[in-house]
Amino acid sequence: MSEVESPRINRRTTRSSSSSTPNSKSAVEASKTSNDTQNLSINDLVYDNESIAFDELIDSFPGRRSQINELVNHLGPLNSPMIPLFVYGGPSRGKTSIMLQIFRFLNRPFIYSSCITCYSPRILFESVLNQVSLHRKNVGNGYSSAKRCEKPSDFVNLLREGLATLMESLKGKVDKSGDKKLSSQVNGRMIYLIFDNLELVREWDKSTSTLSLLFNLSDILKMAEVGVIFISNTSLDTYQSDTGYVEPFPVYIPGFTEDDLRQIFMRNQANPKLYSSFLDMVLKPFCRITRQVDELATVFSPLFKKYCEPIDDLGAVLNEDTKRKLFSHLQPCISLYLNEAFSITSQPLMKTSDNKERTWRKGITKKFGDESLDEIDFHMSASAKYILISAFIASRNPATLDAALFDSTGGSDNHKRKRKSSEKSKEQKETKEQELLNKGPGTFPLERLLAIFQCITSVGEYSPGYELQSGDFGGEYCGSRFMSDIVLQLSSLCGANFITKGGTCPLEGSIRYRSTISEDLALKVARSLKFPLSKYLYRR
Amino acid sequence: MRRENHAEQAQIIIRSRLCSPSFIFSILSDSPDSNYSKLKYIVSSSVTEACNNSVLLLGPRGCGKNAVLELVLEDILKEHPDMISVIKLSGLLHCDDSCALKEIARQLCIEHQLLFSKMASSDDNTQFLVSMLRECGFAHKTIIFVLNEFDLFAQGKQRLLYSLLDAMQSVTSQAVVIGVSCRLDADQLLEKRVRSRFSHRKLLFLHLSRDDLHRLLEHILLLPTDGSLPHDYVAAFNTKLLHILADENFHGIIDVLSYPYSTVSELSRFLFSTVCRMDLNPGILSLENFKAALTSVQRQPKMEGLKDCSILELYVLVCMKRLEVKELESCNFNSIMEEYKSIHDTFQTSDYYARNVCLRAFEHLLQRGLISFEDNRGHLQSSEFRPVKLLISWHELQQGLKSHLSCPVLLHKLMDRGN
């Protein structure tokens, strides 16, 4: 059979790479290291060189004793076949680490691939085949895979061959038992395939065929010495398929209770009593919003720093007075942190200087949803700001209002006398406006955006207190010379996701845009330009 | 210690039995009107009488179609050693025609020790197939084509099916085409010209009956008395097992298990779970093992997801439920926030959090599969404005709230009031 060539990527030579002379000594060293890493053996399919005891395994995962027992029982005694296993549960509950540590404890060979790093079927197949054929990508082979594999049929054939050779070498090892008792000796004759983060496969292009292939893999291979394990964030019923597949055996990893969370957070703490009193304060309120360990950990670390501020010596013994002092120091911040738990601000939330304390104390009394900063913290050119405001107005207001808001002088018209409307029609109008607001920002064509932009910028030069920038403004923008500038700005705003491209209008075929910024950001941008945005909005 | 070794050995024996379908089905296939005998008759008659034939095996997943087929092929290979070659294709892997022809050519080459070239085009492969059929016909050898996931072959233009069934029409060829599918209407998917060349023989594989179930249980679980295990252990194991199988509670467990589906694969998963839980010290199965296995096999993922929700997430779910009751056309995150605010205004709860915190709780619920977006146009709108729907019913939500460890009383009141 003809050999399949590995794909060679032709590298373009840049000036720097062609000018530097290759160092012969480093080339020799590089080839030496590649030779060392080239010869992998079956021992490399096991987790580590040191295995752990069962008690150590249980201790490293608090609150998971029954799940670990269930998984170990499912894997069974040495050399016993198993039906495919499906481990599921929410994120950051320890599924992957429990699985890998169990394999470390059992010292059995496994092949692990995660659907985060292997983001397409080809990469997934090649990753599994590389591990099966004990091939590692390094400088020597140009970081290429052992075999190129795109189609599922090739994958199954190559996998079968690779697994057969692996079994041979495993059997050989078992037969040669006794003479060299290495601590890294591989246990058993079975090989396990672990597919992690399976829920991401649902979003791939060929998701149905790939999922059917993976779930039916043990049936297709029909090798009793292969065990298949799936790890997923979501349960089996979220994997839908037309004709179904053979269901693997589900094992659920539940979320942590508050006691478990306390145990987890108390691990490896320098001053356990101090941290324990800290947890007494914060664990209960924060568990009401989320019970995921990663999110709680991100919130707790700055809070703990704040908690320890009054004491000088972190190793000191805690008495009742200190506890009360720390409690009163932290108590006011907790509600602030509860509401800012998941937002990423560009400046740290807690500042230690005194005048800043006064400002954030004031900030607590503001109503929810307001950010503590009044300015936008990134730079935009003035024309981009105007485009952004026009886009926001265009998305917010229905198109029929444009004529009323922007009359020929460019100013909003406040002189028309409004008819007195009855209570009921006012209420109806309000609910309609509210519904429109709830549906989200609307789409608008490019012409409307440009029209609003022209009206706004012509207003801008008449509003009091507005300083003209060094570049020309106002009337200049109506000239066609600057139209291309505006379209370029628009495309860069689209790239930054401030404006998205909506669907195309079925009648005209022109592209429609939609503004995605929040009202707060729009107000901030308008404030920086001293533009009276609230006068132009449909409803305040 | 030695007891544990025996127990482990027993576990390994039963687990290997459960993982090999042919063992399971060998006991169900001894009666003369079973699918096994019918299939065997069809295949062996086409082999001995040198004629062409085609048959479809249909039935739900896990009912033994492939297992029975394997048994039949094994027996026929034993009876007529050199007269058969088997080509196996799968609709999952080979639904593309050129891919399927390449696979057929590859398997034929392996069978007959010929050199296979990967560079051959699909025309070359078709030619090869036709000439192989002719040659095998002259040598009185039958080629059996097994097409798994037959309904996937019937998608598209069905060129492969047509060429296979057409090649069978000539007098010189001797081939049997066996299609295996889980769709009971797989033959309706065939095109007119393909269907006319098909012999319309179908074998239906159905669910287990109660008697079959009991025979199967004994067949799988009773340890062999002539194996390597000591006699007294085997005797103790088997007597306890027969005692359990006759128990009324056990019949209740089996009823609950087979109520949704009574396929062999469900039963083997249940028995696998039971054997895994066997206590290694006495090394004997007990009724508790069976009970625990039942709960582990029949899972309720939405209830599990509800139990793990934080309180804010429960609030979001209850708000969505109330909006559903008010019969608005669709709700999105904004309307949920308004409902949340109105609840806070009415009841003055202490659980009122800012918008971004609620958005994160909303995303957790999406991730966990308790709510989902109604449409697929994700790139057009941000997640705050897209309409969402609940994936759990009122009853499930109430049950979930009751079984939640720290659900606030207000939520119970809100749910009851809305009912």
Largest interface, with counts of residues having CB < 8 Å to the other chain, equals: A-B, 71 and 73 residues
- Can you tell me the residue ranges of chain A where pLDDT is under 50 for at least 5 consecutive residues? 1-9, 20-37, 177-183, 351-372, 462-478
Task: Report helical residue fraction of chain B.
Answer: 55-70%
Instruction: Give the strand order of the largest sheet of chain A, numbering strands 1, 2, ... along the chain.
Output: 2-3-4-1-5
How many helices of chain B in DSSP terms? 20
Decide which structural class fits the backbone of chain B: alpha/beta
Write the H/E string of chain A, N to C.
Answer: HHHHEHEHHEHHEEHHHHHHHHEHHEEH
Strand order of the largest sheet of chain B: 2-3-4-1-5
Spatial separation of the terminal alpha carbons of chain B: 60 Å
Order of helices and strands of chain B: HHHEHEHHEHHEHEHHHHHHHHHEEHH
N-C termini distance of chain A: 74 Å
Radius of gyration of chain B using CA atoms only: 29 Å
The major beta sheet of chain B can be summarized as:
5 strands, parallel
What are the low-pLDDT stretches of chain B, counting only 5+ consecutive residues below 50? none
Give the overall pLDDT of chain A as a whole number.
77
Number of H/I helices of chain A: 20
> What is the number of beta strands of chain A?
8
Oligomer: heterodimer
Relative strand content of chain A: 5-15%
Describe the largest sheet of chain A: 5 strands, parallel
